[in-house]
Every structure is written in C-alpha cells, then in structure tokens.
Amino acid sequence: MTLYLKDAIYIDWNTLAFQSGHLAVSSGDGGGIRFLDVLPPEDERGVDDRVLDCSRRLVTKSFGCGHHHIYSALARGMPAPSKIPHNFSEILEYIWWHLDKSLDTEMIEASALVSALYCAKNGVTFVIDHHASPFAVENSLETIAQAFDRVGISHLLCYEISDRDGEGPKEKGLYETDAFLGSGRQGHVGLHASFTVGDDLLNRAVELARKHGTGLHVHVAEDAVDQESCLKHHNKRVVERYAESGVLDLSRSILSHCIHLDEKEKRLIRQSDVYVVQNTESNLNNNVGVTNYRELGENIILGTDGMHSDMLRSAKAAFLAGQATEGIDMAGIYSRFRKVHEYIRANGFVGDGDNNLVILDYDSPTDISASNFLGHFVYGIDARHVESVISSGKLIVENKKLVTVAEDEILTFSREMGRKLWNKMQK
Ligand SMILES: [Zn+2]
C-alpha cells in the first residue's frame, strides 16, 4: 500500500531542510518515503493506494515517547486518596501503588487503548512504556501490545518488576517478561527502582535481559530516597549498583529521571551507551527536584512519565525548565526531542522508520523556513496543529480523528473502566 502526499512541504527532521513536492509513503517496517515529480495516474495506482492533499501542510517525522506509564491513564480526575501524600514515597504509596494493585486485565486494556488514542492524535507513533499491575501481571504486556497494535502505535514495552508486593508478583513479573520477550515482541526487562529491588531480583533481571538481547528500563534516583535506601542497604550509590550488576553494559538500557546523582555516577553514565530519560513535568509535579542533563552526556531522550501523551508539550516544558538548570538552547531541546529515534535505530528496534509522519496544519502568523524552524518548534507548533498521522506507512489519524479504532468506543470503555477502578480503590 502506498500513500501519496500531494503538494506537501516536507521538513527533514535531521537537517531541517524544507522540500516542496509530492511524497510516496510505503507501508510496513521496511517501508520508507520517496519524492516524486508527478503523482502516478489513477489507473497505475494500487487499489489500496490513497492520495492526501497536503497543500499548505508541513510534513515531518512523527514523534516518540521515551518513558510512559499507560497504567496511570484512568487516574485522571479520580477521588483524592484517603491519606494526603506529603513526599515522594507517600505519593507512590497512597496513590500509584494503590492504583496499580487495583488494575485488572480489562482496565489495563482500556488504559492502553486510551493512551494509544492520545498518542496517535498528538503525533506520537512510538512509545516506550513501563507497566505495573501487580495483581494482574499475567498477559498484561501482550494486552497492551495488542491495544497499541489496534490503534497503530509502535512500542517497546516492559513490566516494572519489584519486591514491593512480595514474592508472588515478583516471580510473575519475571515470568511475564520472559514470556513476552520470548514470543518475539520487542521490549525491555523492567524494574521499578533500586529501593524496591533486592539483589536477587536485580541479578535475575540482568540475566533475563542478556538472554533476550535487550536492556533494562528502570527509574533511577528520581527522588533522594532512592539514594538514601541504596546507601543504607547496599553501601553504594544507585548508578554504582547498576554499573556493578551489568545494567550499564547493555546498550538498550534506559534509565529514567537520574536527578540525584553525584559526579562519579554521572561519569559512569557518560562512559556507557545507555540512554537517560528526562521527564520534567512529572518531576515538577512530584517536587523531586530538577537537574542539568547536559552533565549526563548526549544520550538524553524525553518522556512524559505517564502524565500525558504529548511530546511537543514535554519538549516545551523541558525547554523552559532547562533555562534555569542548564541554559539549554532551542537546538539543544530539539535534539533531545528527536534523540529517541537514534536510540531506537542504534539498538535495532523496528517501528520508527521514515514512513512515520505527522501532517501539520500550522497556522503560523509569520514565515517559517529551515533558518527559523526551531523558533516555531519551541514557541509555536503544538498538538493542535497535528492534522493527520501516518504510522509505519499507514494512516492512523485523518483530519484529527483516529481512523483505526472508533474513538467513541475507546472513550466509552475507558470511562466504564475508570468508574470500576475508582470504586475498587474506595473499598
Ligand atoms: Zn516513570
């Protein structure tokens, strides 16, 4: 199947060069894009081929999210917890660990579908997710994968295993991860964070990652409590612990947050091939601090930490917070926004080829070109400009509507599951 984008203004996401003309977009993991001088006449097109009029539209590569939590999707607007949290540990205990323990398989499916819907409409076609549902572990990753596939979002999934809920959920998490990765799905071995992971689990997780040729995806020093616990129980700091266990030797590993690190830990990360995810809005929301990510090297990508599914919004937040922490410039934040594509390509994952595109209806008040694109990226272009989205060569959003699954069906289901979850949490 080929999609023809007629009269588009294509922006190369690497060079920011603008090129006007027609594009042919072929589907599948091996598909790509070609520039055409003239569109093929109708009788030479395939039966499934389509022509989209892209006059006055900007077309560029779609976006990727480096750290998401679909499991938090049904939290929006839920009743306040019975005890009000006053710090990060209490936020986890009173809110997120209460919520994740209440999830069942159909709530997980609704959470994944509605997250995928939002991602699609925001132009995000690749999601790296970190999932927790300690009392519904079995088949949770395949449930999420199938929901993402239905909507048309490529993914790298993992289950965040920990010791916080005892032996049963821990063993189930290891088993679920092994089964999911063994089925041919791409993903990570997920761990929650150092302070909820004992040495037996850490060693087995690294072993499992080696077995499947992948890396770990783990929260690192999101709050100072992670470091305090590590020093108390292991007599070393968090990144040292991961380095000694082999996590940093796995190039596919993703360390999320990395806020409270000392100089030695920063050096260990800089000297490794792993990637770090910056989740500014979540860090501000949880009041856990901010950091200068430039000190961690070049492998920095952006995530939402489950707060929302809009990477343009995350980039703007990281840019604004980065003024105080590292004086980041527009080119710096754009590079960080796009770094996720390098991570995916360098590690041989599929689903993020050149045939992943957003079509933007950008009502700019001023001229836009390669020379001032970054100013438009930081201060102008946002999710409301995303008109249509192509994922692996397939049109998934057309004129701001999801076309792969009925939006009403997803929202009706997620609201029903939201009520069910909140009722369960009140008991
Ligand atoms: Zn997270």
Account of the 3D structure:
The structure is a single chain. By secondary structure, this protein is an alpha/beta fold. 39% of the residues lie in helices and 20% in strands. It is built from 13 helices and 18 strands. It has helices spanning 88-102, 105-121, 140-151, 167-182, 199-211, 224-234, 238-245, 263-270, 280-286, 311-325, 330-346, 373-379, 407-426, and strands spanning 2-11, 18-26, 33-36, 50-53, 58-61, 63-68, 124-129, 154-156, 160-161, 189-193, 216-220, 254-257, 275-278, 300-302, 357-360, 386-391, 394-398, 401-402. The strands form three sheets. Strands 1, 2, 3, 4, 5, 15, 16, 17 and 18 form a nine-stranded mixed beta sheet that branches. A six-stranded parallel beta sheet has the order 9-10-11-12-13-14. Strand 7 (124-129), helix 3 (140-151) and strand 8 form a beta-alpha-beta unit. The N and C termini lie far apart (51 Å). The mean pLDDT is 97. The protein binds zinc ion. The site of zinc ion has 6 residues, from loops.
